[in-house]
Protein: SDR family oxidoreductase
Organism: Spirosoma soli
Amino acid sequence: MTLENKTVIISGASRGIGRATALLLAQHGANVVITARNVIELKQVEADGQGKIVAIPGDVSSEADMQRVVQTALDRFGRLDIVINNAGYGVFKNVDEISVDEWDELMATNVKGTFLLTKAALPALKAQGSGHVVVVASDVAKRTFAGGSLYTASKYAQEAFMGALRKEVRPFGIKVTGVYSGLVDSHFHEKGHGHETSQNWLKEQDMAESMLFIVSRPAHVVIDEFMIHPLEQEY
């Protein structure tokens, strides 16, 4: 399936996987609407998109912001085809060290944000009888580890959300894909992008190319789950 003139929304697209995906999909002909809270970085991605990327600053935990992002995409391009829920971050502490604010704020971004952007997009996708919702989760939606209770809980929640959503929207011709990645060399990790310890991890471009593959399958094909790891990572 060509992405020419397809409309894509990507959250958390000011840097990292979201940025790389936005630029790659734009290069393949998609009209890309990106959102994130960092206005300066978001506008730079828009500039790098050479007219194929529209930046709409917003907070995924705000219903009004996500409705505005979706409406902007519809007003600008007349349709919506693909929604990539990419916004998210991690807090890694033992349970008794996690504050209530940390719990609420992470869940608001990783879980509520996925719900709000998807909810805002569904009326348009249902009305046209097609569409694709992608959720960038993590392989820790399938496993746990010490110090990861908050982050893994958010990813398990995304996994459950996708499972129910998939059953609800398939009759409307809407695809749902969960992306479960292992270690990615990005700003997400404590030592930062490009550290010597992460040189053999997945790259942001690897993730972007995976996203391109997922959303460019023929109309009759859906990839329900996409698991990807660097070779050096045990799973």
Notes: The chain has one domain: 7-228. The longest strand covers residues 174-181. The two ends are 32 Å apart (CA to CA).
